[in-house]
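Re-run requested by the PI after the first attempt was lost when the workstation crashed. Everything re-entered from the original request form. Ligand of interest: calcium ion.
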Amino acid sequence: MKILIIEDEYSLADAIAETLKNENFTVEIETDGEEGENNALTNVYDLILLDVMLHSKNGFEILKELRKEKNQTPIIMLTAKSEIYDKLNGLENGADDYITKPFHMKELVARVKVVLKRKIDIENTDILEYEDLKLDIRTGKMKSQNNEIAINGKELDLLEMLLLNKKQIVNRELLANKIWGYNSEAEYNNVEVYVSFLRKKLKLIKSKVKIKAVRGIGYKMEVEDD
Ligand code: CA
């Protein structure tokens, strides 16, 4: 599980990172608001810890921007005690939880686990859906309206990853790494080849869903009106 911390207090960010690493999470830190937002938009995280008072961009603006871009990564806001309206503001704008500074690391870990469990429960359903497309991840059956086809292996892994992150751009490096287990430029071709297999199958079952390539970054599922 990969967590992004966007926090400009270095010592706090480090302390949180250390705590989460001890809980076996993979952690990345961004100390600048805008860089943090860019990172959150171009990579896939399981959770984001987001400070409010940041250089260059406020945490609430980042939250709004991510949700506007249909990024549904769970977000826990880190707010100062004086910012009494932050809780409401954050929750209204789509934060999953908030935690008031100063906090105990144990409390933070507990909150992180609750929010992640909620996400995992949602993901653990066998059927993943996007628009007219349904994928049964146990049987590999992909369906659209009355058409059905079965996929397996890497094709299934790839479509599953795209559907789990259906509202965001999925980085091709991440796909290559998670599905094929490698991370070199030469291997990204494989992702492209498998994406083309999936495109053919989507056409075959007459789904409206398209896998759009986002140049230099990765892929995103979309519906094109014809
Ligand atoms: Ca701050």
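Saved to the shared folder this time. The longest helix spans residues 105-123.
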